[in-house]
TrEMBL record:
PANTHER family hit by this protein: PROTEIN YCIF (PTHR30565)
InterPro entries attached to this UniProt entry: DUF892_YciF-like, Ferritin-like, Ferritin-like_SF, YciF
SUPFAM superfamilies: Ferritin-like (SSF47240)
CDD domains documented for this protein: YciF (cd07909)
Recorded superkingdom: Bacteria
Name of the protein: Uncharacterized protein
Organism expressing this protein natively: Fodinibius salipaludis
Annotated Pfam families: DUF892
Lineage: Bacteria, Pseudomonadati, Balneolota, Balneolia, Balneolales
Length: 164
């Protein structure tokens, strides 16, 4: 990592971190989809995977606007979260428990993204990057919505399990 001298440098660094995180999710989610049992969960994961691909394009566009390459960083935080999810997938679990665990792992990833986007949105606002702030805010809201959908799905699954 290069020396960060000002908020612009930190903003650029954070864009690279989020870009890496989003690309790691794109690589990891197909395996999570494959191992999910519930059709609703598979659908939710597929939908979020498509959104994530849009987020990557937004980040590339923002980087281009500032003549910045958003590649070149590895988000160690997301790498760790994905490693935990992969370890969970390899556990021998009953299918409903697996789905609940997949949701928990996906929500950890969502919470990381929510924190990252929330921070970079504020940096963009302070720096006067209104269009970047607007685009990043859009991704932030989509991450919040994805987290909310996963929470609703988890509650629904627990209620169904309680009725058995």
């Amino acid at each position: 990592m290069s020396t960060l001298k000002n908020l612009e440098d930190l903003f650029e660094h954070q864009l690279k971190d989020i870009y890496s995180a989003e690309n790691q999710i794109i690589a990891a989610f197909p395996k999570m989809i494959e191992h999910a049992f519930s059709d609703k969960l598979k659908k939710a994961f597929r939908y979020h995977l498509e959104e994530t691909e849009v987020h990557v394009e937004r980040l590339k566009n923002i980087g281009s606007e500032f003549n910045t390459h958003v590649t070149g960083e590895t988000c160690k935080g997301m790498k760790g979260l994905i490693s935990e999810a992969e370890a969970f997938i390899n556990e021998d679990t009953e299918r409903n428990i697996r789905d609940a665990g997949l949701i928990a792992n996906a929500q950890r990833m969502e919470h990381y993204e929510i924190a990252a986007y929330g921070t970079v949105v504020e940096y963009a606002k302070v720096l006067g990057y209104r269009e970047a702030a607007r685009l990043l805010e859009q991704s932030l809201q989509e991450e919040r919505n994805a987290d909310e959908k996963l929470t609703d799905l988890a509650v629904e699954m627990m209620n169904m399990k309680a009725k058995v």
